[in-house]
Amino acid sequence: MTEKLTGLTQAEAEKRLKKDGLNEVPEPKYNFWKEFAGKLWNLSAWILEGALILEFILGKRIQALFVLAMLLFAAWNGASKKKQSRRVLDNISHKLTPTVAVKRDGKWIKLNSKELVVGDLVSLQAGDVLAADVKIMSGDLAFDESSITGESDAVKKHIGAEAYAGTTVVRGDGLATVTATGKNSRSGKTINLINNSAAPGHLQQLLTKIIYYLCLLDGILTLVIIIASFIKGGDFKTFIDMLPFLAMMFIASIPVAMPSTFALSNSFEATRLSKEGVLTSDLTGIQDAANLNLLLLDKTGTITENKTAVANWNNFSDLDNKEVLELAGAATDQRNPSIIDTAIDDYIVDKGLVIKDKSKFVPFTSDTGYSIAEVDGHNVKLGSFKQLSLIDKNANEKISHVNFKAGRSVAVLIDDKLAGVFILQDKVRPDSKKALNEIKKRGIRPIMLTGDNQKTAEAVAQEVDLEGKVISIHDFNDNTDVSTLAGIADVLPEDKLNMVKLFQEKGYIVGMTGDGVNDAPALKQAEVGIAMSNAADVAKRSGKMVLLNDGLTSIIKILDAGHRVYQRMTTWSLTKLSRTAELTMLLTFGYLFFDYLPMALNAMVIYTIMNNMVTMMIGTDRTHITYKPESWNMAKLAKIAFSLAAGWTVIGMLFVWYLNTHGFSHGTVSTIVYVYLVLSAMLIVLITRTRKYFWQDYPSKLVGSVQIADVLITFILALFGIAMTQISWTNLLLTFVIALIAAIVIDLFYQPIMKNR
Fold first, then answer.
1. What letters, b where the CB count within 10 A reaches 16 and e where it falls short, cover 686-703?
2. Its topology with respect to the membrane (predicted)?
3. How far is Cα 490 from Cα 476, in angstroms, rounded to an integer?
4. Helix 236-253 vs helix 43-57: angle between axes, to the nearest 10 degrees?
5. What order do you get walking across the sheet with 528-531 strand by strand?
6. Secondary structure of residue 221 in the 3-state scheme
7. Which end of the chain is more exposed for a tag (fewer CB within 10 A), N or C?
8. pLDDT tens digits for 663-713?
9. pTM
């Protein structure tokens, strides 16, 4: 029956494509104002809105306008960065559109799924994700329809049944005719391999912890101020008068710019990776790459070239060599050939022989271990010698002179009798050894996984300098010492998920490469699942990264991107914690020692806005690549940040003491403190962003430009007395010198700590 299914001609397909359009449903356009409104309805916004209402009730209209400006800026900025991230992921998603095996003009070709039209004849096999509604024309298949029904159990379908876009073939193979595309399909959308959620993963936990630390500090210091005010003879009116300041202390603690910084940094790296041959389907994969300490690597297509060739052929049948090879060729998959199928086909063609047509064909699956063809009255099986030897009980008696250690073996059974054995060899990629050394330099343990036998795996491991021993999967258990492993042989695809889980239970952050249908669960389970360029659709959908090029070099680029994001977020965290702690401590101790808050409310609001402007740009900053797996140690970050804050606070308090004891008015002190805090905030960014002294390194142009703009605006406001008490050039210069000296002293003391953080 399958011979009668010819599909469309290219000319007819082009006519239908012109008439019906591409097989896609455009994503709903990004609605900026809807996203903007959403940013006004979350925890951070609620705190700002509460403060806004409080300021109006207390009659602080000017301050209320500042808070309103901050609220609207945060919403606008968040919506803008979300739009930018969405645009990046949308651009990448076009490159992740799956290809489909389609019969056009009587020939099987690979086609972008967007070019499918009604009437196209397509080939389906396990792992394919349907890009259109189809009617099954041949074969028995099982589908995962959870994407449209929510039910996880596989649904069996036979000839004449309908299958729908968005569902996955989990078992079987066959042919199908496209019945509906794009908006006319049941699901109403095409397959999109991008997870558009840009949730920051464990970085979201970091945000929660930072808010916790800052609110805890603010709560303690607020309580201190309230108690002190009553001890100093204040009354309820005094408490009411202080409410705006206390509210602003909490407002200053809100990480308004953090989501924007995350989005900017991640989308920045996703764009960069897409230009380097790596497509990102989940932004958390970039972040987790910095923490990676164990990488499980497929041998074929990753360490070795994604090509294999027949190195040796042994004929054990009574038939002549020509006939056996042509029968063996009939058992290779012509619709969706694997690298093994291609190698055997090439060997047969090079011999001047032909690939015979078969009357019936069942492709290779990992469940059976072989393919089956009916041709010229013979039943031909092609696949694993181990599996096929269970059918021909005498097979082991014929293979005494075959060197199975020389490479990968593929056996041929004709009428259930061993007819021959191919020995295939993979060539190690020229970049593998260098790339693996780079991965090891980063403190990551690479372990090679292969279905080959132990001796073959040992030879490859030795060639690429993988240190340790190679064991069989049969010897792998909970007590295996991971630090001694170079590779694991005899691995079946379904073994990989168990290995990933076991390594995670041992505390490892696991990266995983894969390309097959059965690799999908392991790719999804791993913190950094990496689908190879030739991976099945379901594997690409399960991984967080998809490589466009073979080999290991692209994986190093992923690691570097992860470290860049980590460094920027570390800088952001240290900066936010130390700046906020400095502000709250300086105000608290200033009130305790001098009986007033040494900073005007207007200045406090402006200071908060200035800080958010520069910290938001940290997502684009220049960074350095570290050579060790990172980890988010909040306790350590908090200690460093609060130590930095303590240094700035001590120097700041000495400066405030000097100002108060030398006749400076409260208004002048307030403006000087504002300038000091802005300068210290800019300098803290410079100190925390590098492991060198801050004067030995420089930030990105965007970060540097915003910092200069912040400082210039601060100087203008202070010199002209805009929204604060005017100060002289002399006082401004004095404040600048004090802040610069403080930064130098603090950096000389803390640089060794920052270098080893």
1. bbbbbeeebeeeebbebb
2. Multi-pass membrane protein
3. 11
4. 150
5. 278-280, 545-547, 528-531, 510-514, 294-298, 445-449, 485-489, 469-472
6. helix
7. N
8. 999 999 999 999 999 999 999 999 998 888 999 999 999 899 999 999 999
9. 0.70
